[in-house]
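Troubleshooting: if your tokenizer reports a length mismatch, compare your output against this known-good record of 216 residues.
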Amino acid sequence: MLDVCNMSVSLGGVSIVQNFSLQVSAGTTTALVGPSGSGKTTILQTICGVVPMTSGSVSYDGVDITNMPIHLRKIGMVFQNSDLFSHLSVWHNIAFGLRFVSPRLVPEAVTQRVQELLHLIGMDTFGDRRINDLSGGEQRRVALARALAPRPHLLLLDEPFSALDSTLRWRLIDDVRDILSATQTTALIVTHDQQEADALATHTVSIAPPSTTALH
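Known-good structure output:
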């Protein structure tokens, strides 16, 4: 279980997040819903260790990870723009996520895991494709597979369906929901769309500046 306790974050002397607390049970998906500027993305970045916390704590399954190095937190992240490596194939993008966390894995184990993930995201025959030859939805699937490759304890998704047309967006939401369910992954997603949150998440937390939250 993810446990965020009284998280506060200040950047450049400006308070971004104030006394934010949250619990996410193992195997469930929780959505943070709110407008731009409400601190949603900062919360994700602080949980994964990219942004330092001014005060408060973050733990997972009772282990305090507040000051733990990023690469030891076992957290996967899917960004708004997919953030894939255009010079690498689909196969090597997914393998990168695995080798970064587990560099000592033997090649056979890497190959098996990448093939499992290609099948999971419905792209078995796409391993040799260039990233720039993929559609927006296909790129999001590859980004998800790369984040899931090392079997993270927690998956963070930052507006993963932004900039997609409506039909593709809802098809991908269904796919991601099924993938998270199949892998029993604990996930925290940021979105400004309540319908999107309702379709994906077990629970939603509404956030509005300055930091008023309500659990539904």
